[in-house]
Amino acid sequence: MSSSKLLRGTFILTLGVLLSRILGIVYVIPFYQLVGKQGGALYSYGYVPYTIFISIATMGVPLAVSKFVSKYNALGEYHVGRKLFRSGLVLMSATGFVAWLILYVSAPLIAPFVVNEDGPGNSIHDVTLVIQTVSFALLIVPVMSLIRGFFQGHESMGPTALSQVVEQLVRIIFLLAGCYMVLRVWHGSLVTAIRFATFAAFVGALGGLGVLIWYWIKRKRFLDELLQKDRGTLHLSLKEMYKELILYAAPFVFVGLAMPLYQLIDQFTFNKAMASIGLGAISEDAYSIFNVYAQKLVIIPVTLATSFSLTLIPTITKAYVQNNRKQLRKYLNDTFQIVIFLTLPAVVGMALLAEYVYAAFYSYDPLGTEVLRWYAPTAILFALFSVTAAILQGINKQKFTMISLTGGLLVKLCLNYYLIAKFETIGAILATTLGYLLSVLFNLWIIQRYTKYRYGFVLRRTTFMAILTAVMSVVVVPIVKLVEKLLHYNGSVIHSLMIVFVGGIVGAAVYFYLSERSQLLYYLFGDRFSFLRKKRKKAVS
């Protein structure tokens, strides 16, 4: 495959993932207006277990299949990849069915751990129905994911990208239309609306699968032609194939499960801990703010930072395998710096503007403001965990990711109830932060141990970025206060959007200007911003 074609494929896939994630964030705004806090909590009660079951049902196989097929295609052994694909379809159908059956049947057992029957909000019956409704998507998603992996293994990124976007679009349209029709047209119950919202996962998966089937029909002849070129020198048994596949798949499973498992701990402990301190009446509202709506906002800077930094992982792997310490040190420096450079000002800005950001997306809410202000800094740990886990995979030490994740989850599990009882909603954030902090520190230590990498340079650069961020904050805060007075701010969505826009533009401009003047921009991104130097030189002359 030519480098230009590879870059185009990577760009298409990245664009598809980015569009899908943007849609996954934007839809929450009208969704909140339709179902409110109680609806958001009920939606999360169903979706968190579903996400975990999807990860278990697919077992990381789709991405592993991509790697497996790509490897044997490069060797000219096309029949090996096709044999695995046919077997994988049967396996994913079976695991999807088993996962659906287990989740559907266990829903009445899960629900009592989530809410109290005598509570003022959603009932155990409501939670049971929602979990059972979302479970149907498990019948399709594993198969769809496997087909995506097969196409990617053939270096064809278009099918995956388009199917992801179509899946998300169909899901969101069905979700919003269903909620609107139930609540505003038919005047039905909130539970029925949320069942429509969760069933949208099944409908969206049908849309994504339809796209993949269309691509399969379109490209079947080309794929069959590859089989005619098969060298036929390797004859792997299914047992050998799946043994290799499991080695590829294990890291993807654990990293993908990190966030859902943290959310599951909150789902099982939050309402009960709040009820224990006499706050059962507001626990579901607080839960939805923390675990649904604020979480969507916090993930935004994480997505941006990790998208940039993870592109360096293949080069880290290559340098490690070749034992090129100098290049490895450079790539690690670049990766950590880019994560901090992009995430730090974003989360500080989000914390500073928490009141306006939350109101702009949803509505003015003092608790939403407080939660977002405390939660935003944790995004740095989310990003660092993803990146350090990827680096550990790159240096073939992925087993330590499982250890670090387990340790972090134990911290969360042990401290969550106590901290919620002590600090209410903020306690859940503190427990998450401490859990991720342990995982990140452990990952960093393992990276240092096996690569002999020293963090002194990155720490100095991080300090410098913190200074730039502090200057940015000093400039932004008074300007935001001035705009607030000029607008006679009343907490409305329009006023909040205007303040966020002004604050965001000013903050980004100040940070970018300081980074450019201090040469930091060029150290991190090379010649990508060299045109700024030329403009400045022309202006001076």
TrEMBL record:
It comes from the Bacteria. Pfam families: Polysacc_synt (PF01943). The keyword Zinc does not apply. GO terms for cellular component: plasma membrane. It is a multi-pass membrane protein. The keyword Transmembrane applies. Keywords: Cell membrane, Membrane, Transmembrane, Transmembrane helix. The chain crosses the membrane at residues 12-35, 47-69, 89-115, 127-147, 168-187, 193-217, 245-265, 297-317, 338-362, 374-395, 402-420, 426-446, 458-480, 492-514. CDD domains: MATE_SpoVB_like (cd13124). It is found in: Cell membrane. This is O-antigen/teichoic acid export membrane protein. It comes from Thermolongibacillus altinsuensis.
